[in-house]
Amino acid sequence: MADQSSPETRAPGAPREVPGGPESPDSANTAPRDGISRRRLLGTAGATGLVLGAAGAAAGYAAAPSSAATPLTSLGSEEVMFHGKHQPGITTPTQACGHLVAFDLTAGAGRKEAAALLRRWSDTARRLMAGEPAGTRDTDVARDAGPSSLTVTFGFGHSFFGRTGLEKQRPVALDPLPGFSSDHLDKNRSNGDLWVQIGADDALVAFHALRAIQRDAGSAARVRWQMNGFNRSPGATARPLTTRNLMGQVDGTRNPKPDEPDFDERIFVPGQPGQAGQTGQTRQTGQLGNTEQAWMANGSYAVVRRIRMLLDDWEQLSAKAQEDVIGRRKSDGAPLSGGTEATEMDLEKTDRNGNLVVPINAHARITRPDQNGGAAMVRRPFSYHDGFDADGVPDAGLLFVCWQADPLRGFVPVQRKLDRGDALSPFIRHEASGLFAVPGGAAEGEYVGQRLLEG
Question: CA 245 to CA 4: how far, in whole Å?
């Protein structure tokens, strides 16, 4: 689980602070729109690296909390732009409610049907993210709400390319993930031809988008699996804080930040064919040539894992034992070596008996980028609780979503390291998995994936 920070905020109608400013093409897709939509007008009075958290799969870093708490009455008016250099929902601050859903194309549906579907989905996402009705068949579920920071993000699974005759356009980075010792994967809840991530700060707004996307699928695609999650709501604390996961750990302290000089190299596919950054996007392969696929420019790869937390076992540990498993203080997320949440961890510090203050198998130690050849990713997970199993054990944990320019240099090396001795491993179980290629953002007049499907 790990480091992830709380959403940024702004006053109603004011632009968010984003890298490069609101007019920058490198912004996080968030900006005010001209005019006031129906929902935005009605909704302004509505409410609202891995650190070392526990769901262990990857090292990452997240956005820093904003300097002022979010007034509850401002949440409905928050709007994220659909069109942009990157798709929304990657660097967008984590929302309070989320849905992850995968689709398989139906028998007989191919490239033509997939293109029409992505066109429909993109138009619906653009409308809903602007606080407008989905179309003539809008269900009115979110009629009284504003945009509420809604984002809709689309990706392609490995199997999509074979079903649409686009095998030559399938990136090497989309090769299936290797197996890990913590895997207990349900194939029916893993992978998929198409993947959609929905996030919003209002549960009805998020559900409204989910239903619209499902209805738009029509006869072209059917739902393979769906997972629903949540995070702390903006404004729920007296001051902005990094969120906590269901183990009670501060989760998200060390997510990489968009203003770091190598952020784009680590998280996004290069914008120009052949432009290789730290993640080594240029590769020699017989199938694809020597560069990353051009249609993936400015895109990213999402690893999705349903990670169950064995909470009954975890909660039997003392607070001190839990801190030793993670390597950070439970109260404020500070490293056990001292300081505040943002203090660099001292891996060599020992106590009076000569023992390492941060245990050698602590989750926070193992997942640090400097312990994994610089591997880093942006983690944007949601917690989940799906009731109890037949034995009365809670089915709860983390919907882990991480973003990187290359999963073989991001998620995979970190998870392999965790396999070799993470103190957190006895308290979690990976139950579903997926890897998806998420293309760059759609320009005005385009739909997501158009450069692939019409190239």
Answer: 10
**CA pair distance 388, 194, nearest whole angstrom:** 29
Q: What gap in Å lies between CA 364 and CA 387, rounded to an integer?
A: 29
Residue position matching structure tokens 């992978």: 191
SS3 of 365, please?
Answer: helix
CA 319 from centre of chain: 29
| Nearby residues of 88 by Cβ (< 8 Å), 6 or more positions away | 28, 29, 30, 80, 81, 82, 129, 151, 152, 153, 441
pTM value is 0.83
Give the torsion sign (CA, 143, 147, 148, 150): positive
Distance CA 17, CA 15 (A): 7
> Which tokens go with 397?
């944990």
In contact, 83 and 93? CB cutoff 8 Å: no
55 burial class (0-12, 13-18, 19+ CB within 10 angstroms)? buried
Angle (nearest 5°) at CA 90 between 203 and 367: 105
- Cβ atoms of residues 27 and 82 within 8 Å: no
- Assess whether 251 carries a catalytic annotation: yes
Question: Looking at 104, 201, 202, 251, which residue is catalytic?
Answer: 251
Report the amino acid identity of residue 128.
Answer: L
**What digits encode the pLDDT tens for the residues 369-397?**
787 778 889 999 999 999 999 999 999 99
Q: What is the mean pLDDT of residues 277-290?
A: 35
For tokens 């158009």, name the residue: 450
- CA dist 313 and 317 (Å) reads 7
